[in-house]
Amino acid sequence: MEYDVNRFRHLIVLGVISWSLACSDSGGGSMGSGIMDTASDDIGSGVIDIVDTIDTAGAIDAVSHSGIIDVKEYDDDCFRAEYYFCPPLDAIWKIKVITNICVEPHEVVEMGECEQYFECDPSNDTVFKVSCTDSGGIHGYQDRWCEKGKYVLSECVPCLPEVCNDADDDCDGIVDEDIPIDTCMNQCGLGDLLCINGENVCDGDEPQEEICDYLDNDCDGEIDENVRNVCDECGVVPPEKCDGIDNDCDGSVDEDITSPLCENECGIGDLLCIDGVETCVGKMPEEEVCNNIDDDCDGVIDEGDWEC
Description:
mainly beta; 5-stranded mixed β-sheet; 4-stranded antiparallel β-sheet; 17 strands
């Protein structure tokens, strides 16, 4: 059948307006300012998106965004499908116009009805949480979003007591809250079991560098390993002294002790360590004899019951 292109252009305008009014009457919507935009349809590889505005002169202004030919319903690549929004605008309805683009001027071969095509606006990628009930009858929530004009729902996640898993188990909008603090044991002893970033962490003393303090600083079960002196004590090795003990832990007792001078009742001597006792070794008191010497070191010379 032959078509008068200019006549069809006017029919498109009148048809779009009449369909818009029909949709408004049947769907309860209102055209408002009279502006219609094509749906961002993604039904296949052959969609051309058009932006249409009914201006005051009643003309249709079409702007092609993709230039892809729709061959879904026609065998010939010459046919193009254009989709237009129509009221009610809150539900995204569309009309469809098939045009033969292989003739000049382009020829309209089919005009569809105003019908709802999308469940949701495909340009809106907002994710909403909606109430649901799982297979066990437990109340929960699931995510809902728009994908290619259709609503997609995630698995229903039931509301359960909160546990440490970085998830909102009890559906109150808060993650890992009010989890009881238990006692735990780490390598250094007791601590508090805390929920940190969705994981249970034992908060207690942490291993430190081992120092000599008679404590197990690095929590390896050994105390002061490799940090004590040769006497297995903290600090410097003690010096040897005269007490019958191996103070410097070298296997010898009372060795290498300095012998200072000393003074006893008979005069100057050497202070020696003998059997663990410091002893002043020098002239010792003797029996007094007649020799003009204070033999018994009592400060008196040749005293006695005799005459010398």
